[in-house]
Amino acid sequence: MTTITRLYDTHTEAMAAVSALEAAGFDAHDVSILSNNADNWHEGHRHEGRTLGDMNGDGENDVAEGAGKGAATGGVLGVGAGVLAGLGMLAIPGLGPVVAAGWLASAAAAGAAGAAAGGAVGGILGALKEAGHDDDEAHVYAEGVRRGGTLVSVRVDENERTRAQAILDESRGWDAGARGAAYRQGGWSRFDPSGVPYTTDQIAEERARYR
Fold this sequence. Notes:
Layout: E1 2-8, H1 11-23, E2 31-36, E3 46-47, E4 50-51, H2 62-68, E5 88-92, E6 96-102, H3 103-112, H4 118-130, H5 135-146, E7 150-156, H6 161-170, H7 176-185, H8 200-209
Antiparallel strand pairs: 1-7, 2-6, 2-7, 3-4, 5-6
Helix pairs in contact: 1-6, 2-3, 3-4, 4-5, 5-7
């Protein structure tokens, strides 16, 4: 199988892409979403009558907790009920609060579960690389989430690549090459896990830049 990932400037565009993939017959187990939550769009949101996860009172990650229990496709992630029904929170240094669900989120959380905070970033970069993205692509996508974006990844058979790409691109998805070039024009080179997360105002400016 091959992995196709796109970066979206808003979570609504990304969720539309996820829904379109599922409607087109792609298995929910092969679809993942990871979204910046600095503007608290996730707080109090409901999907199909279910309150979505939030940070636990003890500060542990909902997604990491589910992965730690071996619930890669169930529990907190709830992929069996549709990817968007299983969104949970994941705190990542350098990115701030992230809302995530699906196999990519589970892989990243598994690497971070029980580890120091810095391990969460390595978990996400590692998950992207393990899925088939090279080092440059992984850093661009991580930086994209830091700047307020949302990742959607889907694992497909090679003969489904073109169809999946068309669905993701229809929802205004960006690949790592295009967005990475834009970042480098501003002097960016690599994702810095020790960097300060973007504020809501900075994220609004970033999104406006690409409209």
